Amino acid sequence: MLAAHTRIEALLILRHGEQALLTLIIPLALLIGLSTLPIGSLPEPRVNSVMPRILALAVMSTAFTGQAIALGFDRRYGVLKRLAATALPRWTLICGRVLATLLVVALQAVVLGIAAALLGWTPSVAGLLAAVPLLVLGTLTFGAAGVLVGGALRAEIVLALANAIWFVLLLAGGLALPASDLPGPIAAVAGVLPSGALAEALDAALTGGAFPGPVPLAVLAGWAVVAGWIASRTTKLI
Fold first, then answer.
1. pLDDT at 39 > cutoff 80
2. Which of 14, 76, 190, 224 is most buried, by CB atoms within 10 Å?
3. How sure is the predictor about 17, in pLDDT bands with cuts at 50, 70 and 90?
4. How confident is the model over 53-101, as pLDDT tens digits?
């Protein structure tokens, strides 16, 4: 049951046009553009500094924005209520959606990794291995935030709010530009946002070839715990 539900959830994500735009097309376009155009002060090859931030963007797009919107409309059309009335246990419904999101993130990482390699990206094996648990932690963190937004508000509000948060985190969360290139106050805030923490952690792994320090991990874990705790008390089936 878990495997079947995971497969269905993954296919629903991949078949959705807006989801495809968020999960693959925009990250790929930004990866190519930021790696080839002289935007910001980055060492050559630029793709080495761009790739970790684009991976963080891909995780945010799938686990937060995509899941928040999907959950909001699932509630609006009674999908969750109908699924809850089937033989599927509640844990299967939750785990199936989580595993589907992780599968899509893995697919994103592969596609973006191939594109980055064609642009000259040469990560170390140790860096790639260190990035795997970071991607899982980032997916869980943004997924909890997505459930928080999509599980309590009306679908129309979720659609507008999730996209607005996506743009804010893209521009001011250390994703489009590294935190060092942002204005002072914004750079300070970027470090305590989940987007900035995930980008910093992935940069340490993929660029430096080392596991990140405790600060970005603590920021991600803190956001995951707080968002998950609030979501568990505010999420509605309808």
1. no
2. 190
3. low
4. 999 999 999 999 988 998 888 888 888 788 877 777 877 888 888 899 9
Listed residue (74, 88, 97) closest to 6, CA to CA: 97
Which one, of 116, 150, 152, 179, lies nearest residue 233 by Cα? 152
Among residues 161, 127, 126, the alpha carbon closest in space to that of 146 is found at 161
CA distance 179 to 48: 15
Task: Report phi then psi at 92, rounded to 5.
Answer: -65, -40
Rounded Cα gap, residues 123 and 132, in angstroms: 13
